[in-house]
Amino acid sequence: MMTTNPxxxxxxxxxxxQPQEYPGIQSKMTPVPDCxxxxxxxxxxxxxxxxxxxxxxxxxxxxxxxxxxxxxxxxAINYHPDEQTDAEExxxxxxxxxxxxxxxxxxxxxxxxxxxxxDQAHEALGGLDILVxxxxxxxxxxxxxxxxxxxxxxxxxxxxxSNVFSIQAAMKYLQPGSSIIITSSIQGVKPSLQLVxxxxxxxxxxxxxxxxxxxxxxxxIRVNSVAPGPVWTPLQIxxxxxxxxxxxxGQKEPLQRAGQPVELADVYVLLxxxxxxxxxxQVYGITGGSPIN
Length: 293
Known about the structure:
Strands 3-2-1-4-5-6-7 form a seven-stranded parallel β-sheet, sandwiched between helices. It has helices spanning about 60-70, 85-95, 110-125, 150-170, 195-215, 235-240, 260-270, and strands spanning about 50-55, 75-80, 100-105, 130-135, 180-185, 220-230, 285. The two termini are about 35 Å apart. By secondary structure, it is α/β, with parallel strands linked by helices.
């Protein structure tokens, strides 16, 4: 049986500097992130399931959405309206897999939308079993004195508040066997100096995962978190990192490269599936080698 060297399995050269306005368009990136469009093969692990993935147009959310469809789930994806072109691509991949796709553009800073999105997904899909809260905002700032109130509010509203509002709205639909998956980050336990506000929100995500796992466990609803390290997504080039950091992004990890979104897909599938029936309250680090504890 052939093995694959993880150091060279995906892009491991220097990235080009490539600034975009937030939230960024994946199709305009060089190289375009690998979200499993060509490589992910399903094994019927989610047949009949109904999933909603926020931030499902690109990056990690896109990888989750595509993998869910290929495992047999119908999928609704939320995304910022500026990302419509990326979302249309995902819709095609989901439908090519023979599954239903629902597009739910909107701004998660809006409490009403964060709640209405859940109702719309449930109605359009005919149910809701899997809730992946993946959408995120990350903007670097090296000087705490320059961290603007609006950025602080936006980051918390997208990364924390919308998760709470969405879960509140979902509780009337989620049944025993349902799964909530929150995308946190290694920043939640090992914060970088330029990501003060983002790192705080990712610590919140981890706390939320553990609290809700204890609260919802008796209802038969599992709650877990995925904590990525440096993964090549539009989040990084649209203000998540200083452009001077882009060329060597991820190369300080033990595996000496950035991760690609497809490399997280199997964990999102596991946590969504009935194979994870005894897994809740856990934080899965996918970091290229940096420990999260």
